[in-house]
Amino acid sequence: MPITCRKCRSANAEVYIPYARLSLCPKCFLDFYVRRVKRTIEDFSMFTEDLTVGVAISGGKDSAALLHALHHAYPNLRLVALHVNLGIPKYSAHCQGKVEELAKMLDVELHVFNLYKELKIRIGDFEKTIFKKKICSACGTIKRHIFEELARKTKVDVLATGHNLDDVAGIMFNNFLYGHWDQLIRLKPVLPPLMEGFAVKVKPLIRISENENLLYCLYADVSFREIGCPYSKGTSAKKRTKDFNNLSKNNPYFRHQVLNRFLELIPMLENIHPKTVLVKCQVCGFPSSGSICAFCKRVLLVKNTIDNDLVV
Ligand code: AMP
Ligand code: FES
Ligand code: ZN
After folding, report:
1. Is the pTM of this model over 0.85?
2. In the chain, what are the domains?
């Protein structure tokens, strides 16, 4: 016999939320999701409606659900969609297509940074460098820098990303295992601007699982990318996620528990862990822990490699 939705008590339930012990129909699930995002934004004081929020959207389900949910939760908020085209054959054009479709559907302003048009490099060029086996890591550094650049260009006050509960809890756990305290601290739901003039960074989906984002997209008719990044296959990050998923298999609260314990721990870590002193990068002027920032180092490395290839 079909189960009745616990909220409206009329429609058939299609979704079970284990941590809330709720069976919901599609419409009540969408309401539940939007309320949970709003509640997270309020609990962590992520932003107020008088600010401009830039959403980094990749074309994937998490950031697509985030943009859609924010648009519905805050009809008066100025939202700007920010996308980085990484120049990955087939994949990047597909992602940008999905992003454009969503921005048009929601009538949200979209800004695209095309890595090749702007910098004459593509993520695949890292294959010719020492980052050959760490393309995702180099790509992460490139993307984070460009998000900041796009945020400044479009004058957004707050930069929101679609990092979900599974991502954050998994990375927190891993950073803990390896003692990467700096990186653990950086997983806070709200990160203050690196320097004056930079955006606050927030993670409104930190309490929402990957599966909930998928269901949100399906029920809200949000189209998202159907292919995976060719560089993410078999990476150590993927293997670590698998290990973490095995740990959480029999406990629906596991990821929430990991997240909550680390959120308690981070302020203590911040007290005992010296803050990195930031200076301006000599090349781009962005905040950096050394005289040349990680982004500029990687761009210079790739450009030199391409130039040398041309000479030979
Ligand atoms: P990832 O690091 O790929 O797990 O992505 C984490 C978050 O970064 C996503 O949820 C998006 O908010 C953002 N993001 C990743 N890739 C892009 C991209 N190419 N353009 C814009 N935002 C992105
Ligand atoms: Fe960056 Fe796949 S999206 S390497
Ligand atoms: Zn720099």
Report:
1. yes
2. 46-276 (3.40.50.620)
